[in-house]
Amino acid sequence: MYTSALFRGRVRAVESSCGTWFVLSAKHGLLIPVAVVEPYDVGLKDLSVAARQAWSEGVLDALLGRFGDLSRHVFEIHAGSAYRENGLVAGLKAAGATVEIPPDGLNLGQQLAFYRRDVRPSFVPTTHRPCETHPRYQRIGEALDDSDEESVRLSFADLEDVLGDPLPASARKHAKWWANTDKSPQGRAWMDFGWRVAGIRIGTGEVDFVRENRSLNNLGTPR
C-alpha cells in the first residue's frame, strides 16, 4: 500500500494547501486519489530516460485535459526528482503554470522532518508494491523506496517517525538487530525493497542504508 511515512506526510501537505491533488503513478500516470488499481511493481527511477519522458508527456496531456489553460494554476509537487526532472516541471512552466517544490533539495531524513506531524494516515490509496513482511517494519522499506538517494543515513528518531512507534529496546542496544537477514522481519523489510544496512552507530543512534546495487566496500557493515 501507499502507506509510507513520507507518502502520508506528502498527502497531509497537499490536503492542507491544495484544492485538488493527484497521485503520480509510475505505471498509470496521473491518478485521482480514490482510483482503484491492481497491485504493481514499477518504479519510475527504474525506467529508461525515454520512458520517463514519455511518462511526463502523458501526465502533462492528462493535466491539460482536466484543466485546459495551465497558466491559471499553481502546481505544488511533492514527488521525487525522477517524477519532476524528465519533462514534467519544464512542461508545466512552458505552459505558463507556476510550479512550487516545497521539499526540493532535502534528503530523506530532512523530508521526514519537514513532513513530521501525526503519523496516522489521513488517506491510504491503492497498493503499488506488495511486500511479504511484518507490516510495521515494512514501513522502513517503503520509506527507503520513496528516496531518490543511493545511500541514506537515518536517526533512530527518523525511523520511529517512519514506524509510528518507538523502536524496540534491542534495536537501541544491539547492532545485530540491524543485521541484513531474511530471518528477521526488520531485515526482510528493507531487503525486500532492495536496500541493506551498511553501518550502525548505536552510540549516536544512526543507521546507514544503501541500495544493493552500490558497493558496500567503503561503507562498513553492521557489527
Q: How many β-strand runs? A: 7
Largest sheet: 3 strands, antiparallel
State the share of residues found in helices, binned by percent: 25-40%
Radius of gyration computed on alpha carbons: 18 Å
Instruction: State mean pLDDT (0 to 100 scale).
Output: 81
Uncertain regions: pLDDT < 50 for 5+ in a row? 118-134, 214-223
- The separation of the N and C termini measures 32 Å
Binned strand content: 5-15%
Strand order of the largest sheet: 5-7-6
Order of helices and strands: HEEHEHHEHHEHHHEE
Number of domains: 2
Shape: elongated
Query: Helical segment tally?
Result: 9
Q: Helix/strand-derived class?
A: alpha+beta
Write up this protein.
The protein is of the alpha+beta class. The protein has two domains: 5-114, no CATH class; 135-211, no CATH class. Helix content is 36%, strand content 13%. The chain contains nine helices and seven strands. The chain has helices spanning 5-17, 49-67, 81-84, 88-94, 108-114, 135-145, 156-163, 169-173, 185-191; strands at residues 23-25, 29-31, 74-76, 98-100, 151-155, 195-201, 206-211. The strands form three sheets. The chain has a three-stranded antiparallel beta sheet with strand order 5-7-6. Strands 1-2 form a two-stranded antiparallel ribbon. The chain has a two-stranded parallel sheet with strand order 3-4. Helix 6 packs parallel to helix 9 (185-191). The longest helix has 19 residues, at 49-67. The two termini are 32 Å apart.
Layout: helices, strands, pairs:
Elements (H helix, E strand, L loop, with lengths): L4 H13 L5 E3 L3 E3 L17 H19 L6 E3 L4 H4 L3 H7 L3 E3 L7 H7 L20 H11 L5 E5 H8 L5 H5 L11 H7 L3 E7 L4 E6 L12
Parallel strand pairs: 3-4
Antiparallel strand pairs: 1-2, 5-7, 6-7
Helix pairs in contact: 6-9
